[in-house]
């Protein structure tokens, strides 16, 4: 690991967002637009309309959905969500959603920091099982495997890509101690 890499990750703080100010919504909107334009499979296709992205972020802080924000030097550089299962027979699990890192800040350990923080929040909330899915072949799969997630299976033709093709998704899970 280079000195620049270490310095870049040490200044990142991750916190839980109880509400979003308009400038935070704007920063998150820009990240969502950028990762979508970069080809990430996060529920949207490029070009993503800024109003649609803002509307998404305006409604993301709600009961049962925990939003984490990673900041560096006062600027949001990443985000992740933990959606708590609320059914009586499912209150031991949660779904990891929208782990997004600004493309200019990727490969600096921010995704890992967000995932570690999500695991801490899950434990605090009494969750012992996490699950997520990602497009087959995405680089995020490497992160999830390094974080101890196990592949549970694949579903073909799950999500449409910017090219119009249908891509498979891979489901992962992790049991927390």
CATH class identity: Alpha Beta
Query: What is the tally of beta strands?
Result: 7
- Mean pLDDT metric: 94
Spell the H/E element sequence: HEHHEEEHEHEE
Label the overall shape. Answer: globular
The radius of gyration is: 16 Å
How is the biggest beta sheet arranged? 7 strands, mixed
Helix % is 25-40%
CATH superfamily: Gcn5-related N-acetyltransferase (GNAT)
Return the domain count. Answer: 1
Number of helices: 5
CATH topology name? Aminopeptidase
Major beta sheet, strand line-up: 1-2-3-4-5-7-6
Give a description of the structure.
With 177 residues, the chain is an alpha+beta fold. It has one domain: Gcn5-related N-acetyltransferase (GNAT) (Aminopeptidase, 3-Layer(aba) Sandwich), CATH 3.40.630.30. It contains five helices and seven strands. The protein has helices spanning 3-10, 22-37, 50-58, 110-124, 140-146; strands spanning 12-17, 65-72, 75-84, 93-101, 129-135, 150-160, 166-175. A seven-stranded mixed sheet has the order 1-2-3-4-5-7-6, sandwiched between helices. The longest helix has 16 residues, at 22-37. The relative contact order is 0.15. Residues 1-7 have low confidence and may be disordered.
Topology:
Elements: H1 3-10, E1 12-17, H2 22-37, H3 50-58, E2 65-72, E3 75-84, E4 93-101, H4 110-124, E5 129-135, H5 140-146, E6 150-160, E7 166-175
Parallel strand pairs: 4-5
Antiparallel strand pairs: 1-2, 2-3, 3-4, 5-7, 6-7
